[in-house]
Automatic annotation (TrEMBL):
Family: Belongs to the Orn/Lys/Arg decarboxylase class-II family. LysA subfamily.
Protein's gene: lysA
Ranges where the Orn/DAP/Arg decarboxylase 2 C-terminal domain occurs: 70-422
Catalytic activity: meso-2,6-diaminopimelate + H(+) = L-lysine + CO2
Protein name stated in the entry: Diaminopimelate decarboxylase
Xref: InterPro entries: Ala_racemase/Decarboxylase_C (IPR009006), DAP_deCOOHase_LysA (IPR002986), De-COase2_C (IPR022643), De-COase2_CS (IPR022657), De-COase2_N (IPR022644), De-COase2_pyr-phos_BS (IPR022653), Orn/DAP/Arg_de-COase (IPR000183), PLP-binding_barrel (IPR029066)
Originating species: Tessaracoccus bendigoensis DSM 12906
Subunit and interaction comment: Homodimer.
Amino acid sequence: MTHMHIAGSIHADAVQGGPTWLTVPDDLNELDLSLWPRGTHRDETGRVVVAGVALTDVVAEHGTPVYVIDEDDFRSRARDFRAAFPDWDVYYAGKALLTRTVARWAAEEGLNLDVTTLGEMRIALEGGMPAQRLGFHGNNKSEEEIAFALAQGVGRIIVDSFDEIARLEAACVEGGHRAKVLVRVTTGVEAHTHEYIATAHEDQKFGLSIMGGQALTALVRCHSSQYLDLLGIHSHIGSQIFETLGFEVAIRRTMKLAAQFRTATGVELPELDLGGGFGIAYTSADTPQPTSDLAAAFEEMIEHECRAFALARPRLSLEPGRAICGPAGVAVYRVGTIKNVELEGGRTRLYVSVDGGMSDNIRPALYAAEYSAAVANRTSDAEPVLSRVVGKHCEGGDILIRDVFLPSDVAIGDLIAVPGAGAYARSMASNYNQIPKPPVVSAKDGVTSTMLRRETLDDLMRLDVGQ
Ligand SMILES: *Cc1c(COP(=O)(O)O)cnc(C)c1O
């Protein structure tokens, strides 16, 4: 869906009463447990409790908006990947959510970590992730970033262009280093996800094309380099993917490329990285596969392609981000104003404005991402009303949730909790309209701890150094 369609479809929704997947809930107080951190429930007074902490208590201490991350939920999803893919390397994609604490959790759970910038490398290292367990990504790594990565001894660099290969070799010469590399390729897979988060079709900025021949050329180029140790091929087909078909095609094409590389050089590549992108449930319409099912499907595909191309099983890795931190996080807002907007045909739509919006969650505006929500401070016996949760920014498109059922007695001061907010919310946050970014609070066994404090207006004022 593009931005153009959003305005046009308001009218259609008004007639239909919302998207086809959205049904009127029997009981608004009931939480769909597939969306919330494991163990989330309402206590006897009706308050939503995450990791043993009532969200009202988190808000009393930290204010709104606030992101709450359930530590045990994050850790259990990390463990699920380790258990389901026992002899694979699992790289947590730090861009989804990265703080020093999160890097420490990942390290403690036996995950490696993907980073894309100097900033992400710094936080990962300060969180205690060993440099050898970092994978360094990006399509435009700077000389400074490459030099830092080499000096730290980063475990692998995923090269994305011929320019970068030359830049990396120059940095190796300069600093007296060698670099372990994978070549990021595009497999031509059209992943069934939003265009902006599909990354394997040909016409986009990432990777080197298998079909166009650049991927093989780059592999041979790295293989023959004096300064680079070529580990293998890297493919990441996109994000929020539910079907394994795209991965199947990616595996076939990368394995075929590995066979072509062997023909060209006589050498078998030792590694293959299949990227991330495993979908999570944001609404009750989303039905992600259990991680163990995913693993079984991957193993079967790998085995099949190894046999087909007579290749030894490579060392394998994958890179889940959202699937580990997304469901662990909840964003909590406070309702500020409520407006009943009259639509054509005598219908109305309830606009519920909260004290955040596109600055703390850009995903709905960026790629029409859908979310769900619940009133977190109380239960209600009022009837469900189709509502739209909007932010406080100066944009008509500042919509957090286009369609969600809320109780008709939703009131100023109520808390609105949004599940699935652990990934790509705080990490993509901005200061649009000079709003300070919300804090990220971890919760475990009834105790909270601040991971990232709330930005203050003083933080913002300090940046403004003009006269
Ligand atoms: C973004 C990204 C990931 C993680 O994607 P998720 O959808 O969060 O799992 C993994 N690998 C690469 C190269 C990425 O760019």
